Amino acid sequence: MGSVNACQTIAKHFAQDDVDLIIALATPAVQAAAEAAYSRDIPVVFAAVTEPQAAGVVNDWQKPGTQVTGVSDLTPVWALMEMALEIMPDTQNIGVVYNDEEVNSVIQVDLSKEAATALDVNVVESVARKRAEITPAAEALIGKVDVIWIPTDNLILEAFDSIYRVMENSQIPVIGASTQFAAQGALCATGFEYYDLGFQAGIMVAEILRGADPAVTPVQQPTDILIAINLKAAENIGYHIPFEFLLMADELYFEVEREQPYTKIRK
What are the residue boundaries of the structural domains of the chain, listed by start? Predict the structure, then answer.
């Protein structure tokens, strides 16, 4: 999913096969699909794309103006930052590891900076552009930050465990922009149920195959935001989660996922 070259190769094959529609998951995939499908006027429906307008695949969220539309997973960064500061009120510096070559990640980091300014905290950036750079990027934040947050970055998601191990050893809590991060060891996370997001995109696919024009089909967003908390991750670094946040949580995890399945409660 995170390989731009692979996305481009696959999209070109679909276009050459003159398919009726291409479904693309994540920003690199929809950018490749939009480019490959353009000359053949093949519609593209995406899911899990953070900011399609910034990615250059639509002109506007309400009226895409291209043959591309779909469902965005733009995370509620403000809500995540506010929740983190409620749980950890002494936080002054929030670190972020991300790939600055992924437009979806840059958008989320920019949103976190806006939120940080309003909340009177600082965001400290550390960039990783390939898997081998992720651990050094995380280690570069040690001693500089109180908390680290992880956006829905394809590269980082694939190697989240590396970041978690560094932060656990340094007793630094991790917060994430996907509930999947909570399953793997983030203390808390916000996000969406990606099955529901995919189902929503599937409905759009059916409508377009029946004749709807993607150029005037608004980009949609999920309606339900989930809160996930990992109690084991909190225990590992000595944090106590306030009871009111446990009541608010949609998912509670009691293990940190490694090789074995994790244990969770879904309300």
Answer: 4-73+193-216, 77-191+225-266
Closest CA relative to residue 48, chosen from 21, 66, 30, 63: 30
Q: What is the pLDDT of residues 12-67, one digit of tens each?
A: 999 999 999 999 998 889 999 999 999 899 999 999 888 899 889 999 999 999 99
Dihedral angle computed from the Cα positions of residues 29, 32, 35 and 39, in that order, rounded to the nearest 10 degrees: -90
CATH superfamily of 77-191+225-266: Response regulator (3.40.50.2300)
Whether pTM exceeds 0.85:
no
On average, the pLDDT of the chain sits at 91
CATH topology identical between 4-73+193-216 and 77-191+225-266? yes
The total number of residues shown for the chain amounts to 267
Q: What is the DSSP letter of 228?
A: E
pLDDT at 2 (0 to 100): 53
CATH superfamily of 4-73+193-216: Response regulator (3.40.50.2300)
